[in-house]
């Protein structure tokens, strides 16, 4: 099995190098997953533990995006409702992300240091907008990212191998579902 994994890495290495561009263009989410897979590959760890690590990276990535778009909304939103929801997201998700970081450190997992390329592109597109158009894009991005993070945490809650992840996911789901309701309400108010 280790030979097969090493062979796959060697076969994919040229493609990864070709796609990676310069060192400054590395996707932080991809890098975190790669570092975790490498660390896990060096140990005698199961595929389920690899999946746990991937889900932790995914939820951290979603939460980083939620914080980023909400911080931008605090500065740019025209709607008082959008600013209120953004502040609530910052307060709640900041706590969730800190809890996730503590668990990742305890489990010796690497989390992304920034947004993925696709997330950064979405944030850039949103930042270019102003007024009601910005508010609508914020509401849409907020709903979509919260759904993704909720789905990832539901998977962690039901499918995680590590017993420490289930209670974490359960606690996070309560907050994420509450934020999802607020985001859905906001999006309804912002629709033209």
Describe it.
- This protein has 192 residues and is an all-alpha fold.
- The chain has a single domain, classed as Ferritin (Up-down Bundle).
- The protein has seven helices and no strands.
- It has helices at 2-20, 28-41, 47-76, 80-106, 117-127, 131-159, 165-190.
- Helix 3 runs antiparallel to helix 4 (80-106), helix 3 (47-76) packs parallel to helix 5 (117-127) and helix 4 (80-106) packs antiparallel against helix 7.
- The longest helix is centred in the first third of the chain and has 30 residues, at 47-76.
- The N and C termini lie far apart (55 Å).
- Residues 1-24 have low confidence and may be disordered.
Task: Output the keywords.
globular; disordered N terminus; Ferritin-like; Putative membrane protein; signal; mainly alpha; about 190 residues; DUF4142; Ferritin
Write the SSE topology.
Blueprint: H1 2-20, H2 28-41, H3 47-76, H4 80-106, H5 117-127, H6 131-159, H7 165-190
Helix pairs in contact: 2-3, 3-4, 3-5, 3-6, 4-7, 6-7
Give me the count of strands.
0
Through-space gap between termini = 55 Å
Whole-number count of domains: 1
| Secondary-structure content class | mainly alpha
- The CATH architecture can be named as Up-down Bundle
Percent of residues in beta strands: under 5%
Shape type: globular
CATH H-level superfamily: Ferritin, core subunit, four-helix bundle
SSE order in H/E notation? Answer: HHHHHHH
**Into which percent range does the helicity of residues fall?**
over 70%
- Helical stretch count? 7
Mean pLDDT: 85
Instruction: Examine the coordinates and then state which fold CATH places here, giving the name of the CATH topology.
Output: Ferritin
CA-atom Rg in angstroms: 18 Å
CATH class: Mainly Alpha
- Sequence stretches where pLDDT stays below 50 over 5 or more residues: 1-24
Biggest sheet, in brief? none
């Amino acid at each position: 099995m280790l030979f097969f994994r090493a062979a796959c890495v060697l076969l994919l290495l040229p493609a990864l190098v070709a796609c990676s561009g310069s060192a400054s263009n590395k996707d932080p989410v991809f890098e975190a997953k790669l570092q975790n897979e490498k660390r896990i590959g060096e140990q005698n760890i199961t595929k389920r533990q690899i999946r746990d690590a991937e889900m932790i990276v995914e939820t951290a990535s979603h939460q980083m995006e939620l914080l980023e778009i909400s911080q931008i909304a605090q500065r740019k939103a025209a709607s008082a409702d959008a600013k209120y929801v953004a502040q609530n997201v910052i307060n709640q998700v900041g706590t969730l992300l800190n809890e996730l970081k503590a668990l990742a450190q305890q489990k010796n997992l690497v989390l992304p240091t920034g947004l993925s390329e696709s997330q950064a592109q979405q944030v850039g597109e949103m930042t270019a907008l102003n007024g009601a158009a910005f508010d609508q894009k914020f509401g849409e991005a907020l709903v979509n990212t919260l759904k993704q993070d909720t789905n990832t945490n539901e998977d962690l809650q039901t499918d995680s191998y590590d017993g420490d992840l289930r209670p974490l996911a359960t606690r996070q789901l309560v907050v994420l579902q509450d934020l999802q309701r607020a985001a859905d309400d906001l999006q309804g108010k912002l629709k033209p």
